[in-house]
Amino acid sequence: MEYDLYYLMTQAMMEAEQAFSSGEVPVGAVLADAEGRIVARAHNQPIALNDPTAHAEILVLRKAGVVGQNYRLAGSTLVVTIEPCLMCMGAAVNARIARLVFGAYDPKAGAAGSLYDVSRDDRLNHRIEVTAGIMEQECRALLRKFFRARRGN
To answer: Which residues, in sequence order, are CB contacts of 39 under 8 Å at separation 6+?
Structure first.
């Protein structure tokens, strides 16, 4: 399961930039199959879709499920620009994602090691391998740029 995580994160960053351009919090995600091929991509759209669950991770899992015609995405890698929240980690566990790769940590809501660690909770029936910090500075910079602009700084 070794492939170019930087390429995948660059693709997730492109999705995050689309969210930024739309006025959404700039989070992007891609889902790669076991060979590292991107099967789905998405970015945050809760405002556009009037849907509090329309996080990049949820949308990419939904798209990948349709592509693969299965709600189980075993062997896949979820690549996202920021550490997923509790809702998104729960969805990743239920989808049986093999690996999560994220850029920036989210100390206020992260559920893959920062605030919670759903990925390694022995009480759950599935564990997810986590790789953190891929292109962390670039991911964090885009989020900072968005929130600075939003605050008018």
So the answer is: 31, 32, 33, 63, 64, 67, 68, 76
